[in-house]
Amino acid sequence: MTEQRNNIYSDIPAWLLEKNLYNDMEASASKTHFIRKTLKHISEVFENELFCEKFAGKPLFLQSIDPRVKLLTLIFYMVLSSFTSNIVVLLILAVIPLLYAKLSGLELKDYIRRSWLYIPVLVLVFSIPGVTSLFVKGSPLVTVLRPGVMGLQSGLYFSMNGIEVALRIALRAGISLSFGFLLLLTTRWSKITSALALMHVPLLFISVLNMAYRYIFVISAMACDMMEARYLRTVGKLDTSDNRRFMGHSVAHMFIKSHYLSEEIYDAMRCRGFTGRPVSCDKFKVKGTDIFFIINNVIIVLILIAGEHLF
After folding, report:
1. Which 3 state secondary structure label does DSSP give 159?
2. Residue 27 — pLDDT band, cuts 50, 70, 90?
3. Cβ(190)–Cβ(282) under 8 Å?
4. Among 274, 250, 96, CA closest to 174
5. Nearest to 121 by CA among 183, 184, 169
6. I need a labelling partner for 172 at 20 to 30 A (CA). Which of 11, 86, 127, 139 fits?
7. How far apart (Å, rounded) are the C-alpha atoms in residues 107 and 113?
């Protein structure tokens, strides 16, 4: 066996048996490789779709609610969060989607990460300069610059009023994202657009939404194929100028290709009898669980409106 193995190795060129130190170094630093990073970000688009479909098909709480009822209810919560100014009410509104997510079988860790750990945090950070004493007056809570420094008569400080303003902005952003993700994770996209059509939303708007949603995955697949082809043909280290040139050419190519693709798709749809009206096989009917869901949320909204003046 050993002699047979040595004979096999003797037929292989020596340069193929040498260990490629650059590939090892590249694999250890793959997070900084621009092609691998681009492929990773593109694959996240498909991962999000699979993540949504995994929960939307489960026969649990929100998944069994009529999409029209669910859509109107969750949108109403978003609107309510935009008009309320009470921190306690906003905190309660932030807890409601978490309860619904738990009842619907969602993974709370991923759900919280997607809805609260990115955009709300960025909104909070970016709103900090706007809630200082330069814009929001009040009793100093945290002093940054003493009075008279840099020509500021009252100094630069954060007040309780300013901190509350920043919290309101961040909470409103997080609440809107929470209810939006809750709708997408518990409802298939086709059912959402079908519900919009039954609610007499303009058909042109629904068609644009459907085409945009599908185009995201078509163009992502095209970009992924392009990146994989470049990666398989790459030998050695890429210069920064080559990376920029490749990305510029790729964006231009994707733009031109998507333009021609859109015309071909539209022609194919017209040949198959498309008249501009979306067709759906879904038939929605309000059931007892939907009525119970409506009554339950009406009671919650009335309590929150009353709490606006009590808390």
Report:
1. strand
2. very low
3. yes
4. 96
5. 169
6. 139
7. 10
